[in-house]
Protein 1
Amino acid sequence: MLDNLFSLEGRTALITGGSRGIGEMIAEGYLRAGAKVYISSRKAEDCFATAERLAQFGECIALPEDVSGADGAKRLAEKFLSHESKLDILVNNAGAAWGAPLEEFPESGWDKVMDLNVKSPFFLAQALLGALKAASSPEQPAKIINIASIDGQSVSMMQTYSYAASKSGLIHLTKRMALELAPQNIIVSAIAPGAFASKMNKVARDHADAVAEHIPSRRIGAPEDMAGAAIFLASRAGDYVVGSTLTVDGGVVHTRGG
């Protein structure tokens, strides 16, 4: 049993925002676990470059697309379906953040974040539902994994109002979708990352030692931490984790009081 518990051999995954940061960490982990991986990102050059680098670990295909909103989600789904008829694992990782004082926060910043962080995961899952059902069975359910944030679980003092609201909304959306899809052999779960080095989290990337002082584990997250969590949820090991959000943050979420 243990031999195949964390294997993704023979499975196909699609990861949005897969060209860098957390998405790239997950993509490499899935490839090393045996999956065929499609990665998508808004910038085509970055997407192709990352796919080329990751190809040393397995079959990795770039699908450049701006997945924002329902229209972007549908375009990406159409691109994927031109290659595959079945999808075992969908990772909704693409995300955006916006920070501004309350009295100055713009509607454009609100809409950009909500469109990508909440609307896109829902409508991409909707557009790929047929492919997920085609891959699923009671013995090997398909998986949808939403990448949320600890900012959706506890209160950050940064004035990223739409980001926090979007990630909290995504956590709740995960629960509701999970209840609907589990009887159809599609398991929905989420990951709430803390501090990982990425372009979105430049503070963790550029000031890791300083950030680590405020983390109970005394370090920022490593690629293996994120890959391990994502492989767990995508593999047989995570089949009974339904609607839950796995916090991967070194303990930060328990230190926040608002």
Protein 2
Amino acid sequence: MRSGDVMNQVLEAAVLETAAKVAVGAAVAAGAAIRSGLEGAVAVRAKGTAGDLVTDLDLRAEDIILGRLRRAFPDHHILAEESGLLDGADSAWCWIVDPLDGTNNIAVGLPVYSIGIALCHLGTPVLGVVHEPTTGYTWSALRDRGATGPRGRLAPARPPRADAGPILAWLQGYPVARTDPVARALRLTLEANARRVIQLWSPLLCWMMVSRGDIDGFVGYRAGLVDLPAGSIIAREAGVRITDWAGAPLDDRIDPDGGEIDFLAGSAEIVGELATLVKSADGVTVTGLPD
């Protein structure tokens, strides 16, 4: 290995060690602000026409996170849920920030939400942090170094429960309409073949559940970029297999200008079963519902 390559690796490792500490601190501080804000009235307004919402807590948490990231890494790019893409002098590094994953839950008084912060190097996620303010739990992962949570290192997801069918999580992006024929057919197919299909409205927590083995699989349809890297890198490092809908390994490189993503996640066995279900859903037509 050339000396220049060694120096670059040492530099990257040093950046990641600092980045992990900064990201965890930022997520915990943002979580404390959200928790405190929930003690009073929460201002909620629509964001776009697809049913997404934003609250004053989203904005407050994002300000805290962006402030800490900018102070520690002023040259890095940042892609944030509410602020969009913020340029920096060093385009090799890009943070992806979801300051409040579960805003719709907050809006209806359901305390199911999380915070996600990821760091990408040359488009590849190399660090992920997810924090759940209601429990105080934090999960994190560095690429090729494994994932950890409140109880230590995360182990590979356990095999599916063959006796009663798998427990699955479902994620569909906000642009997906209620009348979307793909979503209708696939949801019906999954429901018919699973013990339970859950939709938390906080996909980062679904990633943590599949990483811990609490659920068997996770299916995403037209998922947004901000929802993906913080949770998916933790899942990968925990031993979860992540593929496209055909069962091929999913390229996890992030393009800030990219589109939506379809994915399957779980053990190798459950991902194979899910790919078969996705294919079978192509022949399913749901009728009798409003268009």
Protein 3
Amino acid sequence: MGNYRQRMMAAGCLEVLVNKRKRKGNTKPVKKAKKGEIHYLPEPPDGQSTVKSEKDRETMLLEVQKREPDLHLLDELMTATFSQRRQEIIGDEPLISAVKDRWPALFSERQLSAEFSRIVTKDLLESFLDGLDALVPGVLQMYGEAAASGRRVRLSSVLSCLQKEDTNQNKRAAVLLGLPCYLAEDSSDIIRMCDAHGETLDVLMSGMQVGLLIGHEGPLHDAFPLDVFNVALVVEEKIILHDLGDVSTGFAMLLGAIYCLNLEYPRNMKYSFEFLQRVVMNIKPDQCSARIHGLRNKMLRYHM
């Protein structure tokens, strides 16, 4: 395989060249993240030259500025320019602000889902919610046992929220927000609660490289807000997507943005995101780490 990759690199294969590249100021090579991308760095489609892709991108810039853009036209243009966009994001590693200036159409719930589907060939929101709903009863039971044994005291406050309002949305939120607690991970720089009348957004987003802001009204007396009015997606201390209706949709879009923008999983929650990828989304489930493999096996007894 080493000789094969050398031949591919000599032939100018972009994916091999990108993975061989050295980071600035770092001797470690840039390796492709093991997230199961089927179209990690695709070749341009037949008949789609660089000049035509650039014209399509400029057409998108004009269309996005309209009060009522043509969504079907944007879908077609985003599909046609997929290869160019991936080569820019992966090859140049630009700041998110630069990506947003060049590809503003990408930063919407519709287009993030479509881009994720192009990369992984899975429906983002449907796959995420279906996989999550199948796991909710078993995970909540697992949380209850861990809280009762005293190993994860913080999970008690998460589960107590469900006694006040036991809705499907709150069950999903309890599973997702309790996952870092169960895995003993620090989510303070990735998931933050935002009081509508509290601190300014600049203060709240300080130090957030990638994460979620969960908006609620008034002081928060529970582990998570039972009445969420807005969920925003934050990358590099900037909001790139907002007005997401609930916590589970916010997590799905966060996972989609990580794929679409070629981001690494946050180090402080790497096992939580691996669980979302390999267990909830069922993407490359056979390549999970020993910790997630043990957790998945432990959950099997709750389905028997």
Protein 4
Amino acid sequence: MNDKRPIIVAAGGTGGHLFPAEALSNALCARGFEVDLVTDERAAKYGGAFPARAIYEIAAATPRGGSMLARAGALTTLARGTFMAWRLIGRIRPRAVVGFGGYPTVPPLLAASLLGAPTLVHEGNAVIGRANLFLASRVDAIATGFETLGGVNAKTAAKAHVTGNPVRPMVIEAAKADFPGDADGKLRLLITGGSQGARIMSDVVPAAIELMPESARRKLVIVQQARIEDIPRVSETYRRLGVDAEIRAFFNDLPFKIAQAHLVVARAGASTVSELAVIGRPAILVPLPHALDQDQAANAKQFAASGAAIVVDQSAFSPQWLATTLQDAEANMAGLARRAIAAKEAGIADAADRLADLVLSVSAAKENKL
């Protein structure tokens, strides 16, 4: 057997797929294995720091929504991508191919399964995504980010292995920080809307702060992610209210911002929830509404079961509700500290190594059958 054969990781679309793929790749590289990344042009921008021997772009598209002509075009693109992946995988002969969800993973995983290569998908959410569901019957194993995986039948569930969601080295480093003290009487809030931002946070949070008594506002230190177009109005509100606030469109060091917070107000994407758990911080989670699979609602529910989070539907996430909830938090800092402990107990800090173990186990098992 050629010991130099790489392991292919396939991911694309958003950092939510690329970051866990990067974490697995780091774990595999630390064990002496080489990794190749298969992605599409949307995710190629994340590849600069990716620990890959080579990065390949494969054609992909989402065959959902739009006109019949658009869907037909997407299926044609996926077929073209599968042929490209077939040629690539046939030439490389990888030890295994691991997908991280989203339609950019369909061509390489489908081609790998047809060629008989060891295959796995990682599902970061608590409900399986459409692309992973399509691939589930074709792959050798399914790694899951949460204890329970919804949207699957018994046969698919039998392939599932709980590994947790791999997190970046920056998250592991941030997790070393203790829960912030409160000797200065301050409540440190982090407001984030996920990789795409969330206008609802810019609409509701400043309005909630304005409803709080001045004595309560003086205790706040706010770090908030906002869309570029929302930054001026959010900043002006906090300036007018005399609130200590830092507003940016993007934080390169978000895990450290999480670690510095007493409380995080956020969406409930798989990466966000996993980073909150590993770092160990309590949260108010506002799942993205109208999602096709309600994956964020399922993620939030499982995290809330630990006692670490309050979950609120976006329809109920009003300035009045949030103002009351924040005042309750200010009055119960000890409760926040207890919720931080609960969050950390729910985290799986070694998820990347667990997933690496599974990848190598599946690879070895299939090699032994050949």
